[in-house]
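(Fold this chain)
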Amino acid sequence: MKRYSYRIAILTDYMLHPTDDNLLAVEENLGLLNLIRFIRGELLWEVDVFQVSPIAQRMFDGVNVFGIDAKADHVSMFPGLNSVFAQRSLGYDLRIYFHWHVAAPKACHRSIVVSHGIFWDAPSTRFNRLHSLDRHEWEKRLLYGVTAPEAFVAEDRNTINVIKAMWPGYEHRLVYIPPGIDLLAFAGSESKGESEIVRIVCPQDFTMEQGINEVLAVAGMAWEQGANMEFHIVGHMRDAKEASIMADHIFSLPNCKFYPVHWDSLPDLYPKFDFALMPFRATEGASLYCLQAMACGLPVIAGFAGGLAEFVIHRWNGYLVNPEAANLIQAVLELASDRSLRLRMGENARRLAEGYPESLWKQRWNSLLNRILANNQEGGG
């Protein structure tokens, strides 16, 4: 008997670049790509993606990507995008709002909202510059995104704790689904640490709070002290002009390299390095980059941001520090100078990553999706 093929509509802000066919290869979109591939490839359901774009329809990785020509409003949310999606997704069995800030003002019946972390925990964010009336409206929309859908997926425990503190009594709406890692693909190297040069990977989406300036400051300090190490800044920038400026800045430091890596090549990337530097300050959830690095046996030096404290246990599998340059260079020099410490922390990092297998992530999503769809078939809701 053939399995019924459900139709799933996913709303996001930017999966592809608005005007070309390239994936915006940032951390959250790598998670989205994994989810799409799981739903299509293993559940055998149909998936369509809707996003901000003036281009009506494109195809990416076998998936229709429909554009909705909309812009963020004065509180950095997307009510226009959301409203159009509500009309265009009527024929689907289930809808996934892949960002919290696209879930208002209308979360459709049989829907899931996904949070990738608290995104307003920095002075630079729009929320912290709003007038009191606008802030009230902003908070009202956030709460709506928690209470209106059938489920609110939090990828990190920090988000759960913040929601419980801001709006007590809604924790029954929350579903905890952290990222999962393919532990066979992401694995360590037998020859790790044999080179005289210590190689440090610094994955970046180049957002304001990911600490790129701190990375460059630490690299400069290491160079001045004659430390034999290389900093590899790996990531994709959305704007070609900004990427050129960033490249000029990075290449001015003799011990820095800057290049993009295709998302399907990441399992081959991390084993080449000795440890990872992620001095993230804010707006971070359960970092997929962190888990990928740890699965490959890399200790991680990280900042106190979002869900990173779930993964990094200070001096056991890395360093969890206030991400100021002085703190970071101390951790970098200590880890770079002690190969046995790196290897021991790397083994512990792998051990922690083994608690987040991709199979468990798939099981949790499968259970959630089928629960909501089963309610629909039974006439629930």
Notes: The first strand starts at residue 7 and ends at 11. The chain has two domains: 7-180+358-377, 198-353. The chain has a mean pLDDT of 92. The radius of gyration is 21 Å.
